[in-house]
């Protein structure tokens, strides 16, 4: 599968460049050659081959990329399941002090080491299911020190784990209890205190905001993202997840690298995103778990020319799953995407959504040697046979990091 100068959109999302009888040659953690086996062997003729891994007819893809997770957090929220079954909505739970705010309490109470152990376990699971690069958002601290605590854990994971971790600051995930009815004051704290210190410490590459009714308005979101852009952060936005707020339009206006969720995005907003080159990160496991009537309109997005990526949205409330393979199935069944579009959305387009397309997301010479081998004969088999883990082997930067269903110590 090859990448290109920009994220895939329209019909090109289904063009994956599948190669029967293919091979990949790796050296120093990078791809040296990729294509038909005989061609690859010709290209590396004369080089000493230290190890050969026979795929034995199995499907091989680039390493999967999860471009939207809330990896580092304390506790879990399984008690909310009963509320959801009684019809209590996501925003109603949040307004009652639950949801994100309950996870904030648990995250604040946890030590940095406790957060690391919990997040590492989830990252191990993500790796076992084929994810080789993961974005991790903060946003469960909502004080400077607790946001820094989350971001330090993400940095530690990046330094110690086989999976690459890309950090996003999301102090504007909710208005904390101590700022109730004073959202503008909290916005000022994010802008004047949190963003400059996080930038000084180099703990996050992107800034994200939850632009939603009852959370942050378009005006508040614009102010935070403009301040972040001035400091040199890349921009992301949780946009139009539950109500149409103009978040997609704001993403286009500010040139965000991605806009995420988008269940309620208007045609005008999506067309603006297409013109601005903003990647739409769709999260079908979240809409599935929240039991909403309508899912993100990925089919329409693709037809409009919007570049679509997919992600788990792993978090303790609305999407407590680490499985990108589950996301594959849900994207086919609920978002009406083809298997080819799905793999594009989880590789090269996901790489663009986190600013890494020059390094990962496709099997091209010079890119990181991140590959997944599956117990599957073809691509369609992955979403078709759902509810199990198809991964046989994972290679990260040229090194085998998963084999026989187990993580190899890094």
UniProtKB/TrEMBL annotation:
GO molecular function: imidazolonepropionase activity; iron ion binding; zinc ion binding
Domain Amidohydrolase-related: 59-401
Names of the cofactor(s): Zn(2+); Fe(3+)
Binding of 4-imidazolone-5-propanoate, residues: 77, 140, 173, 241, 318
Chain positions recorded as Zn(2+) binding sites: 68, 70, 238, 313
Amino-acid positions noted as binding Fe(3+) in the UniProt annotation, renumbered to this chain: 68, 70, 238, 313
Alphabetical list of CDD domains matching this protein: Imidazolone-5PH
EC number, UniProt record: 3.5.2.7
InterPro entries: Amidohydro-rel, HutI, Metal-dep_hydrolase_composite, Metal_Hydrolase
EC class name: hydrolase
Localisation per UniProt entry: Cytoplasm
Binding sites annotated in the UniProt record for N-formimidoyl-L-glutamate: 140, 315, 317
Family designation: Belongs to the metallo-dependent hydrolases superfamily. HutI family.
Name of the protein described by the UniProt record: Imidazolonepropionase
